[in-house]
Amino acid sequence: MPTKKATKPAKTPKATPKADPKKARKGGKAKTPAVETTPAKKLSQIAAAERVLAEADEPMNCKAMVEAMHNQVLWSSPGGKTPHATLYAAILREINTKGEDARFRKTDRGLFTLATK
User: Fold this and answer.
1) Which of 41, 76, 102, 112 is the most buried (most CB within 10 A)?
2) What is the rounded distance in angstroms from the CA atom of residue 93 to the CA atom of residue 115?
3) Is it the case that residue 96 has pLDDT exceeding 90?
4) Quick one: CA torsion of 69, 71, 75, 80, rounded to 10 degrees?
5) What is the DSSP annotation of the chain?
6) Number of domains making up the chain
7) Mean pLDDT throughout 96-113?
């Protein structure tokens, strides 16, 4: 006759208490800033290009727009090697998707100006 092995009762998972983020810090209180300060909203590259073109007297190419954005401290590259190419693509994408409602117009090869409304 085969011998029966003793089986252990099934283990029930223990409930683990969730960590309270308020108690995890020293002192047991959540830190809140005394005064809420909102930093000035940074412009996107294409919004900064729109501002530069608004002040320009004639159409500009993307390299000139990026330099003007940098000089006027409107926008700075976060470390990209070709921000002018990124701007060029963004402007063309807006022109192609929005059509007549786009903020920009292509005047000549590589030159853009603001659309007149």
Assistant:
1) 112
2) 15
3) yes
4) 90
5) -PPPPPPPPPPPPPPPPPPPHHHHSGGG-----SS---PPPPPPHHHHHHHHHHH-SS-B-HHHHHHHHHHTTS---SS-S-HHHHHHHHHHHHHHHHGGG-SEEEEETTEEEEPP-
6) 1
7) 97
**In 10 A of CB 87, how many CB atoms?**
23
The span from the CA of 18 to the CA of 93, in Å, is 47
Interval 30-89: pLDDT, tens = 555 555 555 578 899 999 999 999 999 999 999 999 999 999 999 999 999 999 999 999
The residue whose two tokens read 């853009």 is 112
Q: Is residue 2 part of a domain?
A: no
Residue 57 lies in a domain: yes
Distance CA 44, CA 87 (A): 10
Contact (Cβ atoms closer than 8 angstroms) between residue 112 and residue 106: yes
**104 in any annotated domain:** yes
pTM score of the predicted model: 0.65
Domain hosting 88: range is 45-111
